[in-house]
């Protein structure tokens, strides 16, 4: 696509909104509390925050700089900056990850869609065991899960076909503040429930004996990348539509602040409500956590059916704005680097993603094979989440940091970042983090986890 056809965001506000629309999604409300629950509570939260500030924020700035400099899809961007080398493969990993992440993302988004209906008509019981049994029964049914996954993917494709900017940007602008407000209301309700103190303690009091192992560090790192839509080129593509007038550092900080606040807020909603239920064990629930706990929170509210349905509508929309940015990565690649027409690219990527999503949709009881994979014994959905979030995205971030730190080089990146006297305090610190801290930390965490898995 010629440069002039690509278009740019209307303002920094437009960019921050679109990038936040990509960042805020299932990762904040479903992924974050789930990972906190699986990894021992408060200490995980601290490790997560450290990953966000010291690893992800510098890499977000780097991705945006590459994108704006090259105005390309990830593969095109790396080849433009270092033609004739194999660096394009770092972009290629991102394109593959966009496809892989979307395949399981659409399955969970399908659950959110179904829960709009379930909460609206009040089918989910306020009883803990019944709510859990309902979730297990629902996710174990093949036809409905396949249909929901398909509906989410087809809606994502539909929006991309019709043009993203005006539609999705406008929707996000309107709905994101409503989502934040609803989260605040629900969190206030949750912390005033009987038994909430125990949940707050679990969430806020770090117990480092549980968090300082490679598995937990890896989960926090992967979750931070996932939540900020980093490591697969989404932010690179979004940065490619930024104009020189907008300071990248300031925009990046805003996106990180919005995304992280919403994730933290989700924890304030889930853990106090969970612990208000006798016998609640956050580590045992897994991916069903929010779908099992939240209906019980709604059951304690006057007008709970209304609040519940509204909440799941917003969650579905938040998932849609993220899914769009995921699908856009392989689509932009086929258009920019292979000259495909948008319609063809969108339809083919959507169908291929659906094919890859089928085993994830069947991995919760609908198919024995995909629920207990041979040899590893895990379900296919968990394997996909681990492979893409915990490994592929941080690897993508590692490549970005090494590329900017040593190949494209810090001074060239800074030229882009400081264009038109942009605000960028701590630029030296940024250079050091990109060159030393980010690659070392990501490498150590990934390597340590792999070693732990093998031995
Ligand atoms: N950030 C999204 C979320 O938290 O739900 C998920 C996501 C979107 C991950 C786009 C990666 C990505 F490129």
- Count of runs of 4 or more consecutive helical residues: 21
Q: What is the CATH first-level class name?
A: Mainly Alpha
Please give the CATH architecture: Orthogonal Bundle
| Major sheet attributes | none
What do the pLDDT scores average to?
A: 90
The total count of strands amounts to 0
- What class do helices, strands and sheet pairing give? mainly alpha
Oligomer type: single chain
Helix proportion range: over 70%
Distance between the termini: 48 Å
Tally of domains: 1
Order of SSEs: HHHHHHHHHHHHHHHHHHHHH
Shape: globular
Could you tell me which ligands this complex binds, including any ions or cofactors?
4-fluoro-L-phenylalanine
Beta-strand fraction estimate? under 5%
CATH topology heading: Hydantoin permease
- Integer-rounded radius of gyration: 21 Å
Low-confidence stretches: 1-5
Describe this structure in words.
With 455 residues, this protein is an all-alpha fold. The protein has a single domain (3-454), classed as Orthogonal Bundle (Hydantoin permease), CATH 1.10.4160. It is built from 21 helices and no strands. Helix 6 packs across helix 8. The longest helix has 38 residues, at 380-417. 4-fluoro-L-phenylalanine binds next to helix 2, helix 3, helix 12 and helix 17. 4-fluoro-L-phenylalanine is lined by residues 22-23, 25-28, 101, 226-227, 229, 232, 234, 322, 325-326.
């Amino acid at each position: 696509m010629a440069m002039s056809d690509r278009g740019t965001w209307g303002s920094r506000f437009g960019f921050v909104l679109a990038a936040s629309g990509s960042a805020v999604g299932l990762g904040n409300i479903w992924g974050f509390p789930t990972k906190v629950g699986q990894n021992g509570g408060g200490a995980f939260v601290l490790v997560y925050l450290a990953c966000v500030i010291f690893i992800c924020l510098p890499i977000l700035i780097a991705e945006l700089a590459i994108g704006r400099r090259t105005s390309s899809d990830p593969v095109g961007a790396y080849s433009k900056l270092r033609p004739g080398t194999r660096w394009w493969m770092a972009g290629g990993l991102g394109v593959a990850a966009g496809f892989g992440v979307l395949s399981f993302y659409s399955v969970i988004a399908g659950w959110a869609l179904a829960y709009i209906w379930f909460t609206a008509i009040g089918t989910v019981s306020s009883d803990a065991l019944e709510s859990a049994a309902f979730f297990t029964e629902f996710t174990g049914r093949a036809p409905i899960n396949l249909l929901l996954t398909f509906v989410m993917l087809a809606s994502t494709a539909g929006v991309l076909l019709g043009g993203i900017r005006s539609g999705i940007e406008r929707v996000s602008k309107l709905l994101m503040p409503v989502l934040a407000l609803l989260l605040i209301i629900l969190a206030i309700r949750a912390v005033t429930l009987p038994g909430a103190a125990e949940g707050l303690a679990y969430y806020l009091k770090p117990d480092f004996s549980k968090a300082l192992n490679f598995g937990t560090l890896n989960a926090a790192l992967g979750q931070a990348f996932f939540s900020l839509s980093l490591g697969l080129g989404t932010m690179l593509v979004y940065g490619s539509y930024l104009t020189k007038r907008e300071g990248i550092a300031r925009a990046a900080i805003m996106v990180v602040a919005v995304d992280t606040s919403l994730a933290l807020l989700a924890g304030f909603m889930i853990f106090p409500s969970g612990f208000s239920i006798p016998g609640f064990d956050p580590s045992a629930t897994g991916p069903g956590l929010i779908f099992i706990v939240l209906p019980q929170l709604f059951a304690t509210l006057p007008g709970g059916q209304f609040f519940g349905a509204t909440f799941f509508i917003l969650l579905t929309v938040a998932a849609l704005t993220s899914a769009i940015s995921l699908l856009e990565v392989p689509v932009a690649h086929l258009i920019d680097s292979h000259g495909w027409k948008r319609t063809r690219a969108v339809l083919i990527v959507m169908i291929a993603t659906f094919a890859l999503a089928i085993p994830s949709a069947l991995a919760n009881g609908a198919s024995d094979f995909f629920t207990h994979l041979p040899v590893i014994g895990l379900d296919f959905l968990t394997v996909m989440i681990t492979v893409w979030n915990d490994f592929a995205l941080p690897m993508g971030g590692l490549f970005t940091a090494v590329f900017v730190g040593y190949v494209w080089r810090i001074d060239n990146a800074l030229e882009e970042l400081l264009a038109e006297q942009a605000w960028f305090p701590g630029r030296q610190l940024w250079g050091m983090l990109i060159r030393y801290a980010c690659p070392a930390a990501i490498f150590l965490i990934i390597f340590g986890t792999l070693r732990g898995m093998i031995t």
